[in-house]
């Protein structure tokens, strides 16, 4: 059918792009790759738009079956897509932001000889992410889940000549894998409980389960472990800062806008299961909030522009999970969308700065770039204001949505959430001021080379800046007289959950105004404090003063990497070395060599039978015959 | 119908066979060994003929014919080999042929 054809073409085009660029990458010219790479994503985006505008045609019925992949007794896994508001939202984000970043990469990766390989991997990534969000059952989602993990590994270690980058790629993949173990166990438990992997069948059956059911608790916790790994929450987050070793467009696309949001998508998709497991929801909320605060605190003291943004991403993902846990499903997904816009913008802007400075990433060596890179500055400013939550930019509405519902759930949680927002404001303004204000603190020889980036890099920044500023209209709350468009759009997805959770005590409008005002004042205060500290202050960074212990501890990321190294990595390496030296060399090699020695030894004993003496041979023959006769009689 | 009981034949042929075996094992002269092999064959022939007479089944005697043919062929080959051995080593002592040691 025509509809199914259009639908299957959405992931097929990026996959074709991957095949063409991946197999022909030595022969294809860079110009052609620059057309093919982003071109296929553009086609996917246009087709996704078509799906969006013909929404009712594609969602009635929502499941689109293509092929019965596995059919064995009870196990029925079709290759099918589920098109509903949630998947359309994700499809648009993935293809839209993906296309913008692909265009940016044309200019950013122009000098690189791995140009074609880069676009091949990026296309493969978009293909896997589309499978993830479009799949109609957990298995298709898992295929996409693994695929994006693979592409993350390939792209982080893109410049594979550097040993440290390879280690970062391995770290990302292995930590992802740990989460995937939980996800797989959750999937198996899902199957034994519901005898299906299909979303619709599972959710239909799950509705009949009582709240707090043990099996659902186990399933949701295990699935959430997968989300922890994929979306870089505590304790599986340390791969994300290291993942900044990859090219900046990779950081923008994978580690800000799409792959890391897969965990949020998964929880949102399984919302009925989570709604029926309040303990898991609490766990999700606690981990989300803890991650938000933890990562924000580390970001305050980081000096690498990309690492600040990485910790910021971890922090914002924590907010999304917090939103999911208090029942602000739309809020969390709205924040996912706006975060995709402004975080991609910030990363691409950082890339523009790094490109202009010839590779410098330390903000202590930047400064005064406001005049030299005007467009980059303005778009970066837009992104900063958006993430901090200044109205009327998009980040304000999305973050506020989450904060209000958090207050409704528990004012104590709200205080912590706002503390995180204040830290966010501080480190974002710090980064902005140190990079763009005052005068240049780098090597004077760099100054002549500083130039605004080429159009292919500027245009995406402008588009994303526009989206970050105007994106709020997607879901202006009733408070401001808006129509909460996104909430209504997504409501069918969460309808059952809302009825299960019941009406929480939503704060009144006046409370909402008050909360918003407090947060806004706090945020502006932070901006002013950062301004005083980093712009007005004559002496910028005290070089020789040893910072107090707490600050040293936080600047070293709470020594988490070192702790993991001591607890997990070193014992495993020690066990591995022991197994090699003792078990492998002595036992296994010993057994194999022993067999050889036994054969040789027995041979050198038996060969003495060959005496060459004919009489001896005849004697042996007769002995043998007599023996056979005896044995014949005995047996 | 026979007046001599079968066990006489059995004993006699066993003894003949054993003498043949001992001859094969002990003697160093190749010709004597061949003759001992012939002795063994003859003892078997006699035994077969005896059984055939005592059970009135001609199959035994027919089989003896076959065995005689085979024995004749085997002797021909065997003597040819002895001639060759004498030509190469100048002796018909078995213990001279011990070159196929390990």
Give me the secondary-structure topology.
The complex is a heterodimer of chains A (635) and B (102).
Chain A: H1 2-23, H2 30-53, H3 55-59, E1 63-72, E2 75-82, H4 85-108, H5 115-134, H6 138-156, H7 163-194, H8 199-206, H9 214-230, H10 239-242, H11 248-257, H12 262-269, H13 271-275, H14 278-300, H15 305-325, H16 329-356, H17 369-372, H18 374-388, H19 394-409, H20 411-436, H21 455-470, H22 485-501, H23 509-536, H24 549-555, H25 560-606, H26 614-634
Antiparallel strand pairs in A: 1-2
Helix pairs in contact in A: 1-2, 1-5, 2-4, 2-5, 4-5, 4-11, 4-16, 4-21, 5-6, 6-7, 6-11, 7-9, 9-12, 9-14, 11-16, 14-15, 14-20, 15-16, 15-19, 15-20, 16-18, 16-19, 16-21, 16-22, 18-20, 18-21, 19-20, 20-23
Chain B: H1 6-26, H2 30-54, H3 59-89
Helix pairs in contact in B: 1-2, 2-3
Computed CA radius of gyration of chain A, to the nearest angstrom: 30 Å
**Percentage of residues assigned to helices of chain A:** over 70%
Query: Averaging pLDDT over every residue of chain A, what do you get?
Result: 88
Beginning-to-end CA distance, first to last residue of chain A: 76 Å
Strand content of chain A: under 5%
Q: Indicate the multimeric state.
A: heterodimer
Question: Please, how many helices of chain B?
Answer: 3
Q: How are the strands of the biggest sheet of chain A laid out side by side?
A: 1-2
Unreliable stretches of chain B (pLDDT < 50, length at least 5) are none
What would CATH call the architecture of chain B? Orthogonal Bundle
Helical run tally of chain A: 26
Helix proportion range of chain B: over 70%
Portion of residues in beta strands of chain B equals under 5%
What's the shape of chain A?
A: globular
Give the low-confidence spans of chain A. Answer: none
CATH level-3 fold name of chain B: Helix Hairpins
Number of extended strands of chain A: 2
Largest sheet, strands/sense/barrel of chain B: none
Approximate shape of chain B: elongated
Query: What string gives the helices and strands of chain B in order?
Result: HHH
């Amino acid at each position: 059918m025509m509809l199914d054809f259009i639908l299957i073409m959405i992931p097929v085009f990026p996959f074709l792009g991957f095949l063409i660029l991946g197999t022909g990458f030595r022969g294809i010219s860079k110009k052609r790759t620059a057309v093919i790479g982003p071109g296929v994503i553009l086609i996917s985006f246009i087709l996704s738009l078509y799906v969006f505008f013909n929404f009712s045609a594609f969602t009635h019925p929502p499941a689109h079956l293509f092929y019965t992949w596995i059919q064995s007794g009870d196990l029925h896994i079709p290759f099918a897509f589920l098109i509903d508001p949630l998947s359309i939202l994700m499809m648009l984000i993935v293809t839209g932001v993906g296309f913008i970043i692909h265009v940016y990469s044309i200019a950013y990766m122009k000098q690189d000889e791995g140009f074609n390989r880069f676009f091949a991997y990026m296309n493969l990534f978009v293909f896997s992410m589309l499978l993830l969000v479009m799949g109609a059952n957990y298995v298709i989602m898992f295929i996409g889940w693994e695929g994006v993990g693979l592409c993350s590994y390939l792209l982080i270690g893109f410049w594979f000549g550097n040993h440290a980058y390879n280690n970062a790629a391995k770290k990302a993949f292995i930590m992802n894998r740990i989460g995937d173990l939980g996800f797989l166990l959750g999937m198996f438990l899902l199957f034994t409980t519901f005898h299906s992997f299909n979303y619709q069948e599972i959710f239909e059956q799950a509705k009949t389960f009582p709240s707090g059911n043990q099996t659902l608790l186990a399933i949701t916790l295990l699935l959430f472990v997968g989300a922890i790994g994929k979306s870089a929450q505590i304790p599986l987050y340390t791969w994300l800062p290291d993942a900044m070793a990859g090219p900046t467009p990779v950081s923008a696309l994978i580690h800000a806008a799409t792959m890391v949001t897969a965990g949020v998508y998964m929880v949102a998709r399984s919302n009925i299961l989570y709604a029926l497991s309040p303990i898991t929801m609490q766990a999700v909320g606690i981990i989300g909030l803890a991650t938000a605060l933890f990562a924000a605190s580390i970001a305050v003291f980081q000096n690498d522009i990309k690492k600040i943004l990485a910790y910021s991403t971890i922090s914002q993902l924590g907010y999304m999970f917090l939103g999911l846990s208090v029942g602000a499903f739309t809020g969390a997904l709205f924040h996912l969308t706006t975060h995709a816009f402004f975080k991609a913008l910030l990363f691409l802007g950082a890339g523009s700065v790094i490109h202009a400075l010839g590779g410098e990433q330390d903000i202590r060596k930047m400064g005064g770039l406001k005049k030299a890179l005007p467009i980059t500055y303005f778009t970066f400013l837009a992104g900063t204001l958006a993430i901090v939550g200044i109205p009327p930019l998009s980040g304000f509405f999305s973050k506020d949505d989450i904060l209000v519902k958090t207050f409704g759930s528990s004012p104590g949680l709200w205080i912590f959430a706002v503390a995180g927002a204040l830290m966010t404001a501080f480190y974002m303004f710090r980064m902005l001021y140190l990079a763009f204000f005052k005068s240049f603190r780098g090597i004077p020889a760099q100054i002549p080379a500083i130039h605004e980036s080429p159009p292919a890099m500027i245009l995406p920044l402008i588009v994303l800046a526009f989206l970050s500023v105007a994106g709020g209209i997607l879901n202006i709350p009733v408070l401001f007289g808006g129509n909460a468009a996104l909430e209504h759009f997504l409501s069918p997805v969460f309808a059952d959950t809302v009825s299960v959770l019941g009406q929480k005590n939503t704060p009144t409008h006046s409370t909402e105004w008050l909360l918003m005002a407090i947060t806004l004042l706090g945020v502006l205060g932070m901006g002013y404090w950062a301004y005083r500290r980093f712009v007005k202050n004559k002496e910028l960074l005290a070089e020789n003063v040893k910072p107090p212990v707490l600050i040293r501890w936080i600047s070293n990321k709470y020594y988490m990497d070192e702790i993991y190294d001591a607890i997990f990595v070193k014992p495993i390496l020690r066990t591995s070395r022991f197994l090699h030296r003792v078990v492998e060399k002595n036992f296994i090699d010993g057994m194999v060599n022993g067999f050889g020695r036994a054969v040789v030894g027995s041979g050198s004993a038996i060969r003495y039978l060959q005496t060459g003496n004919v009489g001896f041979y005849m004697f042996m023959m007769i002995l043998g015959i007599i023996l056979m006769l005896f044995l014949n009689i005995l047996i | 119908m026979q007046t001599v009981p079968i066990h006489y034949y059995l004993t006699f042929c066993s003894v003949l066979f054993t003498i043949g075996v001992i001859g094969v094992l002990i003697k160093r002269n190749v010709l004597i060994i061949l003759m001992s092999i012939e002795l063994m064959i003859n003892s078997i022939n006699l035994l077969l003929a005896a059984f055939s007479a005592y059970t009135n089944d001609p199959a035994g005697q027919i089989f003896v014919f076959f065995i005689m043919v085979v024995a004749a062929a085997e002797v021909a080959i065997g003597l040819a080999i002895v001639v060759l051995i004498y030509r190469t080593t100048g002796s018909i002592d078995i213990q001279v042929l011990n070159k196929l040691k390990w």
